[in-house]
Amino acid sequence: MITRYVLPLLALLGVAFALIASLSADRSPPVAQAVADPARPPFPSYVAGAGIVEASTENIALGTPVAGLVTAVKVVVGDRVKAGDVLFELDDRALQAELLVARAALEQARSALARLKSLPRPEDVPPAQARLAAARSELADAQNTLSLWESVTDKRAVTRETLDQRRFSAQSAQARVAEQEGALALLAAGAWGPDLAAAQADVDAAQARVHQAETEVDRLKVRAPVAGQLLQVKVRAGEFAPAGVLATPLMLLGNVDRLHVRVDVDENDAWRVRPGARAVASARGNKDIAVELGFVRTEPFVVPKVSLTGESVERVDTRVLQVLYSFERGDRPLYVGQQMDVFIDAPPLHPTDVTSDHPASAGAQAPAVTNAAAAPAGQK
């Protein structure tokens, strides 16, 4: 029974299943619909390129001049800062100690200079005057004694040796008077000019060392070089911040009130791009978010393409001419680092390249460029 009916039935079912599977495999898979309609060029002849949105100041990768431990981060992502605002600080305890030593040395040098400038001290003058008076008294006494010995008429009563001693004593007293007069005059004259200059030089050197220490301390406070917005913050308190150029910058800063679009134009089309040519950019994913661009400059150096868009026709060894355009951000949902499709008005390769069905070639105006954020693609 099984051999006669069941096995032939199973064989027929297998054959039917194989036919159905083979027919299904020959069918082409349905074409996937695009997530958003691609942007259309508004010019009859154009050069297309991929653009990267960047800050008008370019994206500034902030770092630190010296490596150190981060003790405080003063900002968060999205904060707007002014030029000179402190962004983060490094550990400065060792330099603060050096600064205290430098300031103490400065105060010592200033005290020495002030002491020299305050000379003579009022209390030093009376003792000097007293010493001068004593010297003059001794001189008077020596001169009086010499006069008495010289007045003796009988030369036999006075030896020549005794008379010479009295004369030398008077001369010594005279010299002591001159010495005390000079000391009093020196005291009254105050500090010597070269001594003041040397003391002032010591003060200047100490001030320079203080300024140097303050500069080293201030270098540990990383400040904003320009006014702008923090685009990235990749450092936290307690982390070690290395110096030098980093693959991932500690912070990314830029002015986003007016944005720039850096357009990569293939070197094969570079000759068609004219300075000041009109350009329109559309956001990826929503062609209705389009902006009229203002020409800024053309980078005069053709560089290897590093910002690939993922298109299959792109080559890693492609070289591009970079053209910079700008636009007012306003309330558009456009962000730094975003890719945009850019169309630059350019002369045609040949007269026949301008198709008659293009709106601009028929005398019609180019599609209007929205000045505000349009609804996302797929929404009415």
What does this structure look like?
The chain is α+β, with helices and mostly antiparallel strands. It has a domain at 46-56 and 256-353: Efflux pump adaptor protein, beta barrel domain (Elongation Factor Tu (Ef-tu), domain 3, Beta Barrel), CATH 2.40.30. Helices cover 35% and strands 23% of the residues. The chain has 5 helices and 15 strands. Strands 1-10-14-12-11-15 form a 6-stranded antiparallel beta barrel. Helix 2 (93-117) packs antiparallel against helix 5 (193-219). It is rod-shaped and about 185 Å long. The chain starts with a helix and ends in a 35-residue tail after the last strand.
In short:
The chain has 380 residues and is α+β, with helices and mostly antiparallel strands. The protein is built from 5 helices and 15 strands.
List keywords for this structure.
380 residues, alpha+beta, Elongation Factor Tu (Ef-tu), domain 3, 4-stranded antiparallel beta sheet, rod-shaped
